[in-house]
Amino acid sequence: MQYQVKRIGDFCRTGSGSTPSRNQIERYYEGGHIPWVKSGELREDLIASTEEHVTDAALHETSIKLVPAGAILIAMYGATVGRLAILGIEATTNQAVCHIVPAPELADARYLYHAVSAQVPAIIAMGVGGAQPNISQAIIKELKVPLPSLPEQRRTTAILDQADALRAKRREALAELDQLTQSIFIEMFGDPVTNPKGWKTSTLGDVIHSASDGPHVSPAYSESGIPFLSARHVRPGEISWHDMKYLTREDAEIQWKKCKPCRGDILYTKGGTTGFAAVVRTDEEFAVWVHIALLKPNHELIDSIWLEAMLNTQFCYRQSQYLTHGIANRDLGLKRMVRILMYHPPLDLQREFAIRINQLLQQKQLHQPALTEFDNFFSSLQHRAFRGEL
After folding, report:
1. How far from the centroid of its chain's Cα atoms is residue 138's Cα?
2. What gap in Å lies between CA 157 and CA 243, rounded to an integer?
3. Is 2 exposed, middle or buried (0-12, 13-18, 19+ CB in 10 A)?
4. What percent of the chain has pLDDT over 70?
5. pLDDT band at residue 202, thresholds of 50, 70 and 90?
6. Per-residue pLDDT at 276
């Protein structure tokens, strides 16, 4: 069955928000009741609440705009570029988020969400910039999507939602294992905020040999070769090896003179989405972009797996956000991150924790093939759905 194809700009209203001045915190933020969505919050497919709110003064005195519930949101730059969500509440957004409001007589919002989601890899490929490409509203407006009748859109959406729910259940199982990491951490060492066991305190700089970062200039990419990771490849406790760029070995050798990751090092995001830590658990060679800090732990004082978990606690994450400067170009500088405070339990206890976490990782690895199978099945369904083959 052939469907008519339309440009998003022909049947949708698009726009982006802004960030009210942080110099006017009392006027624009404190006591605010209007939800304000940042690109880093596009983690789930439905936004029902926000981390921050803005005031009526911000809405009336700045370029921020109200976006209706049901709009599709897409992150346009930074480590979250290409992430999608449906807005479940009336809200405002920052400038890194594009909203798409479809004409209700022509398009079902959830159908359009799936249609855009199927094109995310192509959207990112059209972006400009280095390891973290930026996309524009112009690119989004030019996207073409098949637009069958509303009943057919809803039928297609029901099929895709059902398949997506299967993926979500598998992800929930993995997320529960991730939450166990923090539960075990608190059980063994206590809340870092109150330090109930009275562990010695230190800073990040006290327990590492060095903190460095990748190149500050975009290198030339190759079709294959040495993997080149950006901040979007690092999540708490996990490094993604999908959708990567590559360097030639010659170019990688140049990068490694400044910063070469090794097993047991920690990657720590310092640009865009900041404050996520992941241990390097491979001997394979790779290079990193400037938005990733490479931490070399002092193994006479600290276990890498323990330090990863410590940095991913809310206690350390909140510090990382306070130490992150900038609005559009967010940066957690090397000289600032080493000031992050933490407690410092005995090394033998840290290693006992690492043994327990490695056991959890083995369970995660058992779940991962099934999730990959669900992802491949869902991609196949999407492909068929927007070719009119369901």
Report:
1. 23
2. 26
3. exposed
4. 95
5. very high
6. 95
The number of residues making up the chain comes to: 390
Rounded to an integer, the average pLDDT of 265-288 is 94
Interacting residues of 372 by C-beta distance below 8 A, sequence separation 6+: none
Mean pLDDT of 233-240: 92
Give the tens place of pLDDT for each residue, 34-89: 999 998 888 778 899 998 999 999 999 999 999 999 999 999 987 678 889 999 99
What is the model's pLDDT at position 162? 86
CA 125 to chain centroid: 18
Contact 19, 94 (CB under 8 A): yes
For the chain, the first-to-last Cα distance in angstroms comes to: 9
> Would you say 305 and 278 are in contact if contact means Cβ atoms under 8 Å apart?
no
pLDDT greater than 70 at residue 132 = no
d(CA 109, CA 388): 18
Sign for the pseudo-dihedral over CA of 96, 379, 179, 86: positive
Is the sign of the CA dihedral 333, 129, 318, 368 positive or negative?
negative
* Beta strand pairing call for 238-239 and 200-203: unpaired
Residue recorded with tokens 């206890």: 349
The whole-number average pLDDT for the span 140-162 is 91
Distance, in Å, from the CA atom of 305 to the CA atom of 326, rounded to the nearest integer, reads 30
